[in-house]
Amino acid sequence: MLYKTGIIVLNVQDTMEESLSVIDDRIDSINKILDIPLFSDSPEIKTLRKDMMMCRDAILDIAYSLSTSIQKQEESSLAQDAEQ
Fold first, then answer.
1. Where does residue 30 rank: exposed (0-12), middle (13-18), buried (19+ CB within 10 A)?
2. What are the pLDDT digits (tens) for 16-47?
3. Whole-number Å distance between alpha carbons of 78 and 80
4. Is the pTM higher than 0.85?
5. Which residues of 31-61 are buried (b: 16+ CB within 10 A; e: fewer)?
6. What are phi and psi for residue 40, nearest 5 degrees?
């Protein structure tokens, strides 16, 4: 049972790390778009830009939370290994 749980945790961790890599790439892409000056004062375009920035910030929050969680798990695992 512990073996299966360990495998599940490792698979989830691998998936999260791969997803964080994709998120990093998409954030770079969004940042490039957001750096382009606006050529319209249209409220729709301004709203779209604001929404993209909010999405980027939310994605960054998720990525930070997940990466911090993974890092804490790895540090805890290393500390346990060192004790043994």
1. middle
2. 778 778 877 887 887 787 778 777 677 887 78
3. 5
4. no
5. eeeeeeeeeeeeeeeeeeeeeeeeebeebee
6. -145, 140
